Amino acid sequence: MKKNVIFWVLAHFFALACMGQSSNERILKELDGVIAKKKEYSAERERTIAQLKQRLANEHDDALKYTLCDELFNQYLHYQADSALHYVDEMQKYIRAAKQSEADVIIHRADAMGVMGAYNEALRHVEQIDRNSVTPDVMLKYYYAMRTYYGWMAGYTIIPSEKEKYLRKTACYRDSVLMLVPEGTARSISLAEKMILDSQFDAAIPVLNKALSQPMSIQEKAYVNYTLASVYEAKGDVDMQIYYLVQTAIIDLSMSTREYASLQRLAWILYEQGDIERAYRYLRCSMEDAVACNARLRFLEVTEIFPIVNEAYSERVAAERRILNILFLTLAVIAVLLVIVALRLYSWNKRLSLMRVGLSDANEELKKVNEKLAQTGKIKEVYIANYLDRCVSYLDKLEQYRRSLEKLAMASRIDDLFKAIRSDQFLRDERKEFYTEFDKSFLELFPNFIEDFNALLADDGKIYPKKGELLNTELRIFALIRLGVTDTARIAHFLGYSLATVYNYRSRIRNKVKINKEMFEQDVMKL
After folding, report:
1. From CA 219, how far away is CA 405, in angstroms rounded?
2. Residues 174-200: what's their mean pLDDT?
3. Would you say 112 and 85 are in contact if contact means Cβ atoms under 8 Å apart?
4. What distance in Å separates the CA atoms of residue 522 and residue 527, rounded to the nearest whole number?
5. Which of the given ranges, 215-229, 364-378, 442-456, has the highest pLDDT on average?
6. Mean pLDDT across the stretch 198-215?
7. Sequence-ordered list of residues with C-beta below 8 angstroms from that of 39, at least 6 positions apart, any chain
8. Residue 513, beta-bridge partner list
């Protein structure tokens, strides 16, 4: 059962999608727009009524009051029938001053009662008219009233024999109307109705189309369109029937008429075609207007079919709700899956990000290592080159020193020879030159060493070489530490000092450190 309902709803949606291609969809949308503006049209009629009431309140001439009451009656008749009946009573007060026929008031009263469903009362009032004493114009109104009355009764009764009897009487009074009505729209409508009863459908259409091409009131245009809809209904042409019912409904609603038959007939046809949503809206609109107008027959017409359409609409809404629930659950499942996928992607992305950070850190470490290696390599290159140069220079100097000693020996200058051998000037000069070369090479590799080294010391402990010096003893000790020579014995041997002297230098400088004394020498090695 549920599968069938879902299938029916889907098929209905497809039918509605295809309906946009039909010729009537455009005017149906136009009718939808008119229904949406129903309150605006009603407000316009209310303004017109209010103006007429104001004029009536300010009028002193009873004859003009009769005319204003007549206008108010016509405004209210198909808008609010009980108010129309009130102004019939008001017309009765001024009928003598206006020198009007009593029959006009009687027919007005019967019209209002007929709209309200008081058919027997309406007939009793119409039967009061003395047909032998009225003018042809009043007689024509009388025939119209009787034709309308029996038309109401035919539409109201559910007994077939009674309906047939009322239809025959309606036809008789229509014939009477045709005998008196002059040429024009009203005659064309009555003639077309007779042709429909005689099954002369093709003959009725030109009559009504000709009437449409001639000047007429907006109310007459509604009657012509409604009669054309009846012709095409009899012919079985549903599309044309819908077209003319829509045209009639547009006129009725734009005039703010509340007592009408076009919209409920149209709603039933649309229901049969599967347009449940429109049928439901149109019937709701018809029911609201029938109740507001106090139009009993129209209310009964709507209530006959409304339960059927309402049930179908409720089933469709329920089926749509089930489909929406299924879609919602599907979307919810998809949303959950998307959240899971998003969380997985987020997790993977986070891992990837961590891997990238780790890789970046590793690259930085590798870069630092490479820089250190490059720096170490450069240090080695510089000092190996200097070492080789220094060795060659020492060999040359030793050769010169040997020759000078040899010359002293050959010249038998023994005292000078012993004096030269005992002197350490040569070694002092070489050591001094060696330290100078070391300082130059070191500062060439680390030009900012002195500034960076002093940045680690407190302000009162900073060390700078004297004028003419490149490095002093303290700076030279820590220069060796920067090069990786941290063993005190090796430093002492290199500088020609005792172990105690080098140790004291290192301790004294460490006490001048600004921040972390324990990490001082490690910080020096990073300069």
Report:
1. 149
2. 90
3. yes
4. 9
5. 215-229
6. 91
7. none
8. 457
CA dihedral sign, ordered 77, 82, 85, 86 = negative
Give the DSSP H or E segment for 412. Answer: none
CB 237 within 8 A of CB 253: no
* pLDDT at res. 47: 95
pLDDT classification of 2: cutoffs 50, 70, 90: very low
**In the structure encoding, which two tokens stand for residue 488, read together?**
């005190």
Other Cβ atoms closer than 10 A to 406? 11
**Measured distance CA(22)–CA(453) in Å, rounded:** 94
C-alpha to C-alpha distance for 32 and 42, rounded to whole angstroms = 16
* 205, 228 Cβ separation under 8 angstroms: yes
- String of DSSP letters for 138-160: HHHHHHHHHHHHHHHHHHH---H
Cα four-point dihedral sign 136, 137, 142, 148: positive
Taking residues 469-478, report their average pLDDT: 87
Q: What single-letter DSSP state applies at residue 363?
A: H
Residue 111: Cβ within 10 Å count: 26
Determine the Cα–Cα distance for residues 238 and 270; give it in Å rounded to an integer. Answer: 10
* Residue 189 CA: distances (Å) to CA of 30, 138, 143, 186: 26, 19, 15, 5
> Shortest CA distance to 460 belongs to which of 397, 410, 511?
511
Backbone φ, ψ for residue 344 (5° rounding): -65, -45
pLDDT at residue 424, as a whole number: 66
pLDDT for 378: 63
Separation between Cα atoms, residue 71 and residue 22, nearest integer Å: 41
Q: How many CB atoms lie within 10 A of CB 7?
A: 11
- Residue 527 host element (H or E): none
User: For residue 277, which amino acid is it?
Assistant: E
d(CA 252, CA 99) in angstroms, rounded, equals 33
In angstroms, what CA-CA distances link 290 with 212, 278, 459, 491?
28, 18, 104, 117
How many angstroms separate the CA atoms of 379 and 438, rounded? 12
* Angle between the N-to-C axes of helices 296-410 and 262-272, in degrees from 0 to 180, rounded to the nearest 10: 60
CA distances for 222 relative to 186, 252, 257, 290, 453, angstroms: 12, 7, 11, 18, 107
pTM over 0.85: no
Three-class SS string for 268-317? HHHHHCCCHHHHHHHHHHHHHHHHHHCCHHHHHHHHHHHHHHHHHHHHHH
Segment 413-428, tens digit of pLDDT: 777 667 767 666 777 7
Q: Which residue do the tokens 């330290």 mark?
A: 435
- How many Cα atoms are found within 13 Å in the side-chain-facing hemisphere of 429? 7
Task: Return the ∠ at Cα 243 (arms to 238 and 248), rounded to 5°.
Answer: 125
